[in-house]
């Protein structure tokens, strides 16, 4: 797929932020398999106190700049109208692809406070069989480019040698907008997270909190549990439940396998080329509603995945991923009238998918940034 590329749109980004903060504090030298805990740092309020962080030994390298491309083969798409005046339709999607570009910049990297600025651009595209399909939803997203442009700020606050907390806020413009037709009020989406945790040992950290976001298609608040643990030099688990659970197997200093699942949610605003009219049972236009000019598209999918990451150079890594996508929802809601009624209920067939990713780690600073 081309993407708002989100391994929990909130969960995958959140995991990257945690890794980025840890690696900025201490860049892993070549040949070291497992990053060590942060060394003791002097602080004005403490005497050489070691501060807790959510990361644990054995986790993969941090990601500073990411290029990700994902695609699925042909799958069946069915849509059922939920209001009078529209019709049901079934076809096949010839293409569903996402492109994601993300970057993370450490703004502050003190032992007791870390600030990370993140930016992202994602684009998702669909192509359906025999276009134009003459079906309202599909023709409005055919080759149109569902885009996400966002920025976020993460605050990672180690409290002492045991406790830490994280706060993240993110704003995104999400939909089929163009540079000449962009209304912030229509396309802006805001999400946030807060987690409070405990670092029990260098190999075990966990936390609890809440998230406000679109992981399940619509904006909602739900609990979250972070669980990072390395059981031995090979095996570990990295989870932000319920959005993501991943088992990790470290095969060498430069190679890591992952297996697990992610829940990804997308929320797009679609401007209709031709207005639609909601109708009453006798087929006449509904006098209590306006013609639909805007739809809110809520997409939720679960991916069961395997992933391999391999170092090409000390600072450049390749990620390859494959798995099976189960589409839980692809529904369109009325954004013109205040009742926010569901207009179309779609079911996309499950399908295999594959992705490739290149990412640059902070080790590039060591390789190039400190040359005389």
Automatic annotation (TrEMBL):
Pfam families cross-referenced by the UniProt entry: DUF6268 (PF19783)
Domain DUF6268: 188-271
Signal sequence interval, chain numbering: 1-25
Entry keywords, A to Z: Signal
InterPro entries, alphabetized: DUF6268 (IPR046235)
Protein name, UniProt field: DUF6268 domain-containing protein
